[in-house]
Amino acid sequence: xxxxxxxxxxxxxxxxxxxxxxxxxxxxxxxxxxxxxxxxxxxxxxxxxxxxxxxxxxxxxxxxxxxxxxxxxxxxxxxxxxxxxxxxxxxxxxxxxxxxxxxxxxxxxxxxxxxxxxxxxxxxxxxxxxxxxxxxxxxxxxxxxxxxxxxxxxxxxxxxxxxxxxxxxxxxxxxxxxxxxxxxxxxxxxxxxxxxxxxxxxxxxxxxxxxxxxxxxxxxxxxxxxxxxxxxxxxxxxxxxxxxxxxxxxxxxxxxxxxxxxxxxxxxxxxxxxxxxxxxxxxxxxxxxxxxxxxxxxxxxxxxxxxxxxxxxxxxxxxxxxxxxxxxxxxxxxxxxxxxxxxxxxxxxxxxxxx
Length: 355
Hints:
Blueprint lengths: L6 E5 L7 E5 L20 E23 L11 H5 L6 E5 L2 E2 L3 H11 L2 E8 L2 E8 L1 E2 L5 E2 L2 E16 L5 E4 L15 E15 L8 E18 L2 E6 L10 E3 L9 E8 L5 E9 L10 E5 L2 H7 L10 E4 L2 E10 L2 E9 H5 L13
Antiparallel strand pairs: 1-2, 3-4, 3-10, 3-12, 3-15, 4-5, 4-6, 6-7, 8-9, 10-11, 11-14, 12-13, 13-14, 16-17, 16-19, 17-18, 18-21, 19-20, 20-21
């Protein structure tokens, strides 16, 4: 595995953590499984492989649990009784927009009585008449636990060198309680600093750990089943040479490939993998990935949380990204085709981002 000299860079990260990291710039010639093939019709993308932190603020508030109001035999669950469910997104009450969990509490406490609550469920809006009840503290409640934001660490898959648009994770950001895709009102990318690796083992997925530095490096535009899409304040110059043609249908195949990932202070590096069980008809889990690089296995135990989005290079093409780990076999996981990630990405009308 070839390496070039380390270069310090402050980089945007994408999901729920922002951080400055030291990366190892690697040229396109350094990270290939085969010789890059010229393709005048292919979209040219920077294969990033660097961690990113994301903060998402929801469009409305997500019901993560239903609770009872009051105590003893008199306790009730107004929300459940009215037909509300976990995973519903409350968007308004009596026509008043609900912008946060605090706003939800304020509106319910201020109005009391019967409330017309509009939620988004499976892409459709529904309105329920919910009769609030007095809690033990003397305040009106409807019996829900709600969440209005999410955050985490992932890996940037690619950057469009022409626009600064990037995509990462390879899978959507979902609510931990309900499993539903988090509806995004707005989101930011921030720098993160990686501090530790919890190695994966059978039955216990590992993870990359770090913290947000507080420096915003871009904006999240979209949260989709194929990952998050955003716009950077600027394209890191250290990555300018890591440009690959994006693979179209039929390019990915069983056999050897490489991923680009950042898992520790050693920076951005390449690791050997094997691809098998290719299924281009699926929307997300398009092939199976097995980590075969002993150096990565020694560091992480295989695929760990935070590596989602690590770009995969095969035959000189950017073919996809790692998305999931198999809990029973941490050296194995799944990948998504790069064209499925591109299908969720808009490269025109990108909002301007101030540095």
